[in-house]
Amino acid sequence: MNLSSSPLPRGLAALGLAACLGLAGTAGAAPADAAPKPVPPAAAVTPARLLPAQSRIAFVSKQMGVPVEGAFGRFDAQIAFDPRKPEGGTVALQIDMASASLGVPQSDAELPKAPWFDAVKFPKAVFQSSAIRALGGGRFEVAGTLVLKGRAQPLVVPVAITQSGDTSLAAGDFALQRLEFKIGDGEWTDTSIVANEVQVHFKLALAGFGPL
């Protein structure tokens, strides 16, 4: 089993001082209408634009010990964070599960069915970030939640970003345990036939991402 494609997780507290404001040299408490104004939040970061034709999400699993690769043909991503101050940013990814392909028509016909992705009932897999941490050298750690086939699991994704001209490439790899999402249910839970671990490889080409 594998996943690939081009057709995938904030707020600022205001601090103020209600001390003397030096109004016309008067002493005592400041009037009520002189209460400190909240500090405005930092300007929102414009989301980067996904370039689907240059992007890919692929997955690799072992069937009877033999690696088999697949990919997703349709997905979308919303990535909005300043790479120099990523803590307040967000990453969201949606994958069309019916677009999964192993490149073999007979296998592709099985993937959308209930034992596997059950794409009619669960048409999308969704990742939403909850925290982004810079590791240096264009590397980041994105923590969030993956919802796949109606089941939610925490996930930490390593991401390396490189830039060439106006295009940024966000790439990474991580592993999933398919049985945690009931992918390959029933007779397919036998991990001697289809391994439990699935490796996911992605590269997302982005326009409008900030400089590293």
What does the model show?
The chain is mainly beta. The protein has one domain: Lipocalin (Beta Barrel). Helices cover 3% and strands 46% of the residues. It contains one helix and eleven strands, in the order ββββββαβββββ. Strands 1, 2, 3, 4, 5, 6, 7, 8, 9, 10 and 11 form an eleven-stranded antiparallel beta sheet that branches. The longest helix has 6 residues, at 105-110. It starts with 48 loop residues before the first strand and ends in a 5-residue tail after the last strand.
Gist?
With 212 residues, the chain is mainly β. It has one helix at residues 105-110; strands at residues 49-50, 56-63, 66-72, 75-82, 85-96, 100-101, 124-136, 139-148, 151-164, 167-177, 197-207. The protein has one domain (45-207): Lipid/polyisoprenoid-binding, YceI-like (Lipocalin, Beta Barrel), CATH 2.40.128.
Features:
212 residues; mainly beta; Lipocalin; eleven-stranded antiparallel β-sheet; 3% helix; elongated; disordered N terminus
Helix content: under 10%
CATH topology description: Lipocalin
Count of distinct structural domains: 1
At CATH level 2, the architecture is Beta Barrel
Supply the CATH superfamily name: Lipid/polyisoprenoid-binding, YceI-like
Report the sheet with the most strands, covering strand number, pairing sense and barrel closure. 11 strands, antiparallel
Number of strands: 11
Distance between the termini: 35 Å
Output the CATH class name. Mainly Beta
Q: Unreliable segments (pLDDT under 50, ≥5 consecutive)? A: 1-42
Shape: elongated
- What is the count of helical runs? 1
